[in-house]
Hints:
By secondary structure, the protein is an alpha+beta fold. It contains three helices and seven strands, in the order βαββββββαα.
Amino acid sequence: MTTHSFAPNMPQGIAGMRRFVERSSAAGRAGRWEWVVTVCEGEFLVQYGTRTLDWPGGPFRGFDVPAGSVRRDCAFMFRIRDGLITDRWAIRDDLAMMEQLGAITAPRPGDVLQGTISTYDAPSSDRPQAH
């Protein structure tokens, strides 16, 4: 498996994914789906939704990010061939996370989340549920 969103120093394959999951879980960054939509067509599967997590604090993308709870939009894409995941991509709204935790200050903070699925205002009964 090739994980296209890993930092260059992370190993690829199952060993790299295990290391990533173990580190994220140990640091409290694993998070959980608040809601998620999963779509599969052909050899591709996409999960898109809002995740909540507790950030333990520390360096992130060149910023010292304080600890705290956040919610951010994420998309994970997988290629599946012969019943195995061969590729994984991840996209996260890191800007929203850093703004929520106070690592950065947006000139118009309300605009950071405006238009994202985190601002989805339909009743919770109408939202897709995490599985």
